[in-house]
Each structure stands twice: as structure tokens, then as C-alpha cells.
Amino acid sequence: MTPEFEEVNQTVFEKKFNLLNRVKPEYSYSEEGKKIRVLIDDSKEGEGIKTELEKVKKQRTYSKEEISEMVETPSKFWNTDLLDLDDFGKRVAELGIYKPKFYPFISPYKSEWIPGIAIEDVVNGTRLLSIENEEQLESLKQVFETAKAKKESEIVFKDEILDIHKIQPIIDIAEKQLKQPKTPVVSPKEDQNKEVKKVLIIKENTEIEEYVENIEVIKDADYRLSEISNLSKGIQLKKHQKEGVAWLQTLSKKPYNLPGVLLADDMGLGKTIQVLYFMEWYFQNGNTKPNLVIAPVSLLENWEQEHKKFFNDSDIEIKLLWGSNVRNYVHVNDKELTIKSLSSPGLYLTTYETLRRHQIPFAMVNWGIVALDEAQRVKTPGTLVTNAAKALKAHFKIAMTGTPVENSLVDLWCIMDFCNPGLLLDARSFTKEYVKPLNDANTDFETHSKNLRGKIGEAFMRRMKVDVAKDLPTITPIENRAHAQQMPIEQYKAYINELRNIEEIKKSGNSGAAILQGILNLKSISDHPLLKTDDLATLEIKEVVSSSAKLMKTIALIEEINERKEKVIVFTDNKKMQRVLRRVFLEIYNINVAVINGDTPSSSNSVNLKNGKLSRQQEVDKFQNQIGFNIIVMSPIAAGFGLNITGANHVIHYTRHWNPAKENQATDRAYRIGQTKPVHVYYPMAIAPNEELKTFDIILNKLLENKSQLASNTLFPSQQIEIKNDEFLDAFSIKN
What we know:
736 residues; hydrolase activity; Helicase SNF2; ATP binding
């Protein structure tokens, strides 16, 4: 590493600088007959240019590992003594040591500290599975012990696949936390605080209102669209999209000048094109500040593709700001060059992980528009990524999400605190006013939601598909989606045997893990009775199909789709079932079907290309580009957001999700703006001979129907809609 000076012959200076191990007060050389002197200011002892040059002398070279770490964790290498708080926005309080903060899950029923399992992957980001009570903890223990006995590497808990090696510490902490729900338990790893690094400490607005921007509640504003002329041929904004763009344009300028807004349109209504149109208009009106989109890595390709698709002759240059590309813009300890590199006009596309790692340089830039796609990634107060997003300086901020409330109304508070700090008070006051009343069974949720919406005003926009139905094709009504098939005798026998096991467990007074495992077994048998055996791989395809009522019905449905020469998405979260479907479709239709799940690469980087692996977006493009009939198999979790698959107009939910909101999100991959054909949705269901009892599929379908209306309520926590174990138990019985 060598220092660089402007207006100095760098080659000559470098030779002079490298001669001694100490820093000289002056370096001189001759050039074109003139003597050049470089004076080193040492007037400030312990700081200033001489001190920094001595640091360079101390370590001139870096190993590959250190360079890699510099890229991965640049905050460890930024010399914070070179930075000043004036380099950042007013919300940044200091550069300090990050200490994890703990916030409770606040449910409509109680408010206390609940242990959970944090799950991170590149496709879905960070999710938290709560362990709400001793019964759920006992379920986790039982599944864990069973998997250990079978020497399995993974377990399934709450429909998530978890690494078995990470479970024991989680169980230990959960046991302690459930015994002391009023105070948080710190894990040993967090307690050790091994890695000390300075990050941006912001005014969080959690306990008190420390930072406020424009908190005027806007109502009845006059929105008028300012059009641009470079939309691509054949691209037209729908009526609701024009209203959305006009809303963004109006609130971002005088007389309103809001700091930001939450665009919470239902999935599939075109949030991306609205924001891109707004950015084009912003740039064309002389605003040359750089714009920033932060999104899950799996969606960055889609943003780039959509911009190319929607606009002709755009003057906005797309700049990828993640992975190895970051080093083209972020220059460690060179503040001026970094700010200059990132301040060049353009649309920068980055990830939440990149923002977290490079929060210091990102926060020094004066951004024009900052948009958070899938903004529920910043729903948790006090996390590094949440604070890094809130530390950004921007003229106008947009949070984009179809699910603004997942765990609790605190999610909405945290997202709005990014958009418009102070509008919803501090987190403590907000919880008292809007969350705790939900503990009272007499609280009218509709009225409560209306009051909260009134507090936010027009800084929040939400349109549902029912609101813009004329811009969408028809979709199969919920009551017409079930397609029943009677179970073959062997499948029915397996089902009855498992049902009897559950009856015995209920009679014995046992509950928890054994009941949960029984329900999961019924679910598996309903999908295919041989999923938990090794027999499937040795059976002929004809026998594989004929063994399962649901698979027989699925093939019958796909035969009709094939005759129409149309495309179909088949959803199941069971990886073994995904492999079975892939094999069946290959042999019957001679199609090498793509399977998109958590293992599918989220981006088309060089490593994946070298290994011959296509990204999620590339798999979708390949599927849609084939003319006529085609099939794709997807996990509803991995495909739950961001993917546009309007090339398919048939959706089969082979394995139903416990949560109707999650299932709707999966359907929305096909049922969205851009779809030109009627969308057909199917629920293949395994039923008993002569319908002598209600099977798992029948019961789950009814429970999901009952909760489907709640799934459309914006301000109802989507996790509260999920079907619970005890809701199943009373419905299961064997006819005498």
C-alpha cells in the first residue's frame, strides 16, 4: 500500500517514500528542471497526515486473507479517526461499538421476550422462528432427538429445514428464556464480544423520540402525474400505477417535501415499474444525485432487466454495487475517492448484506432516491442492517413491501421509522398506543386499524388486487380450486394407521412433539405414502403415480394443461416430493423440469456459471422462453417474492402452506400485472373412500379458507394467520 498525492509524480515519490522505514518531514525530487518539494505536516502530534503515513509504513502489504477480509468487513479497516460526524446524516449519533439489542416479539395476545431461531440464506434472507412456549420447545427437542438417533443432518421445525448441528445451543437458550420471559437472555457467543468493530450508531427512536423529520400528516393531497417520454413501445402504465407515480412525485416535492413513503401494494401490482418511472422522472428533471435500490440479491437481476425492458434511451446508467463490484466504488480509507465514486449519477443496485458490510461509505453519500425492495428486511429495530438503512442520507426514501406487517405492528413502526422518522412516535409509545390494545379481546381490530392508518396519513399507499381487478385477468375463485381424488387402498391404510397413532397419543394425555410429528406424518402420507421410505426410487413411474391420490390428480390436471399448450407452476416445499415430481415429469413428458428451492443460486455470478448452475431468474427465463407447454417445480418459500412468472397461467399447490398469506404470495408469481390469460389455481386433495372421514387435505383446506379473509388485511400480522397444531386436533377422528 502506497500513499497517493495529487499533482505529484507518483512513480518518483513512491521510490523516495520507500527508501526509509520512517516518514521524513520532506521529500524532494527534480522534474523538467524544477525542484519539487513535498512537505509532510507534523504540526499535530498524534494525528494528521504524518501519523497516517506512519501507519502505512507499518503495514505496506496485505495477505490474500486480509484483502478478502477488507472486502468482506471494510468497517474493520476504515480508520475512523479520518472520519467526522459531519460526513454523515443528522441521524448518526456516533461511530461506536455495535452491541446487539434485544426486542420482544409482541403478539396480539401478550408482550414478552420469546426465544427464536434466526435462519439466514441468500434467497430468503433472515427469518425468525419463535419458540413461544414449553410445548413448542418440547416439540423441537423431540424432533432433534429423533433426527440424532437416525443420524440425520437436518430437522424440520415449523416447516423450515434446519441444520442439526445448530440446534442444541438454541434449545439451551430457549429453556432459559422461557423461564425468565421479562428479561432477555444473551447467548454465550454474543456475551464474549470477540470482534470489536466500529459501526454507525444512530438515534433509534426506540425508547424515546430522538430523531424526527417531517411528521406532518398528509391528507387529501392533489396528485397529478408528470409524464416522461421514453417508455418503451408497448409499455403503458395501468391506472393504479399512474396514481402511484403521481403520489411519489407529489409527496417528494414542495409543498409537501416528505422524507419518504411506504408503497405497500399487493404483490404483482407493479411496484417496481412505479419506482423506476419515478426515478426516470426525477433524473430527467435535473436531479443528478445517485439513486440507490437495496434488494435481496435474487431480485437484482430483475431490477436490471425491468429497467431495460421499460425504458428506451435512458440516461440513467445501471451500476451493480455488490460482490466483487464493490471494490470499484469503495476505496478503504480514501473518503474523498469513495464519495466521488459513489456520487456519480446513476442507479446503483445493491443488497442488504452489502449495505450492512459497507455501511460507513454508503452513509457518507448524498443519495437522491433510496428504495428498499422487500422492505420487511428492516422490520426489526436495532439490527445492523436496519440501522445501516436508517443512517443513509437521501432526498426521498421509498420502502416497498407487500407484507408490511409479519410478526407484529412493530414491523410497520420500524419500516415507517425508516421512511418518516417520528411520524409514528418512538417504539415504546407506539407499542403502548397501538400494540397493547390488541391484548384486549374487546378491541375492535377494524376500528383500531383505521385509527392507525389515519395516523400515518398518505405516507402509506396500499392497493389490493380486488381494487384493480379490471387490469387483471380472471382467477379461479377459492371455492372452485379443490380437486379431490380418492386414496388408493394402501395409501388409505397408511393414513388410518397414523391417525390411530394420534388417537392413542391424545388418549394418553401426551402432546407436543409426538402430536406435531403425527400431523406432519399425515401431511407426508397425503402427498405420497412412500415419501418416508426408500421404495420410491425402485418403483416404476406408473406405480409411483398410482400409489398417491394427489399425484394421480395432479397428472390428470397437467394432461389438460398440456392439451392447451400452456405452462404450469407446481408448488411443494417438500424437497423429496420435488425430486419425485421431477422424475415423474421427465419420464411422462420428457421435460427436464427445473426445481427452484433454497438451494437454487440467487444470482448468476461467475462461480455458479462455472459450475453450470442457473440462478433463479435464469431458470424462470428458461422456463418462460420455451414455446407452449412447460412445467416448473418451486418451493413456495423460495419463490415467495420477487419472481415474475406470467408465462405460466396455471398454478398447482401440491403441498399446501400453513399460512394463506404465504400461499397467496406464491400464486402471485403468475397472477400479477403482465398476465394476459385467465389464471387457474388448483388444490389437488387426497380424500377417504366414500368420504367416510375428513382427511388432512380436507381439514387444512377448510382452515385456510376460514383464515383467507384475514390474510388480505394489511395490518393483521401474517404469522398470526398461520394454522396452529391444536386447530387440527379436534377435527381429526376415525369413523367407528
